[in-house]
Structures are given as structure tokens and as C-alpha cells.
Amino acid sequence: MRRTCFIATFLLMTAVPVVLAAGKEDTQGRGWALDAKVGTLGIGADVSRSIVPRVLNLRVGASFFSYKTDLSEKGIDYSAKLKLGAVPIALDVFPFKNWFRLGGGVVVNLNEAEGTGHSNTGTFTIGDQEYTSQDIGDVNAKIKFKRVSPYFGIGFNNPIKRSGRVGFFTDIGLLYHGTPITSLTTTKTIPGLQTEIDKELQSINEDIRDFKLFPVIQFGLSIRF
């Protein structure tokens, strides 16, 4: 994941001077734009290029964010970390040649959640059995998603305007990441434990199998070059 984040950030940093060098005033709605954004996929930036002036733009970018918290589930205290990240490659269509847009494409989905659990009672219930911390150590849980996810949404503002260089935008959409992929491990193991872990995973998967869509809401500032 770190390598993917580095590559995405490097590409963005490389693209910015190209945009600055290539951009110039164009009243026909051609050119480039740079977006700074914040939302449910984190904090990041996009670069847009007009393909058909006022009708079709190509947009690529990246956004990242991480958040640590503590939570409790079934008597287990988890030190959890949520990682948000996305590298979108999208086309924006402006059906009315104005500020309203339809966006669609694919996103390299870097979202994941992980946590290490410590029992506040000295025991863990996994599957149908109860285990002590001395027997199995800590419990590690992770939730991941499909790396390539389709995206569709609507937006307000064409960053590559015929007049004016600065504007604000909003994007609202859905990312389809499919059924989450879960894993559960312990720092120690004993006979029969894996069978109960499989039961617990089955229960977790039943609880989260309908969470196949991730809401995307983004706000930002665009600058045309």
C-alpha cells in the first residue's frame, strides 16, 4: 500500500509543473485544472484535462487519510486504525455544457481497517468457544476491499471554465467495492482454534456482506491553468 501511495503522489507532483507550463487562457473551455479536495476518501488533489471542450474532461488524482481510535466488541477492546485512500481515473461529462456533471470511472481503492484486540476480562469468545489471553495472546482483525472499484457520481462545477480561473465544487457518488474481505488471526494458537476462527469469520461476513457500496462526498477548490 505504501508503494502505491508513493507512486500516486509522485505522479501528481510530476503532473503539476506540466499543467502549469501547458495552461493558458482559453475562452473555449480547453486546458487543464487542478483540484484540492477533502471528503470521505480523504484529503487529496485531482488534475483534469478537457477532451471535448465544455462536454468531456479526463480526471486523475489521489487522496489519503488515516485515523486511529479505540472501540469495544464482545468484551474485546480494539486499538483500531482506519486507512482511507483512492486513486481515481474518471471521465466527467457535462450534458448541458454548464456546471452540472456526471462522473464515472474506476478507483484504485486503498481503504482498509485493522485492529488489535485485548480482552478486558482476560478471555475471548471466538466462534462457540471461550479462550484466555494466555492461551491465544492478542486478536488481530483486518477488513480490506477490492483494489479496483467502479465509481459513479454527480458533481457541480466544471473546473475548466471559459472564464474565471477559480471555483468551488462538490461531488456526490458511490464506490462499489463489493463484499468486504475480512481476516482474523491470533498471536498464539492452540488445537481447534482455527475451526472457531472460521466460524467467527463466517458470522462477521454475514453481518457485513451487504456493505458493498461506499458513499463518496467531496468538496474542494479548483484552479484552471
Overview of this structure, please?
The chain is α+β, with helices and mostly antiparallel strands. The protein has one domain (2-224): Porin (Beta Barrel), CATH 2.40.160. Helix content is 18%, strand content 56%. The strands form two sheets. Strands 1-2-3-4-5-10-11-13 form an eight-stranded antiparallel barrel. Strands 7-8 form a two-stranded antiparallel ribbon. A hairpin with a 3-residue loop joins β2 and β3 (56-73). The longest helix is centred in the first third of the chain and has 21 residues, at 2-22. The protein is elongated, with a radius of gyration of 22 Å. The model is unreliable at 4-25 (pLDDT under 50).
Report the portion of residues in β strands.
over 45%
Strands, total number: 13
What is the helix fraction of residues, given as a range?
A: 10-25%
Question: Could you state the order of secondary-structure elements as H and E?
Answer: HEEEEEEEEHEEEEHE
Spatial strand sequence of the major β-sheet: 1-2-3-4-5-10-11-13
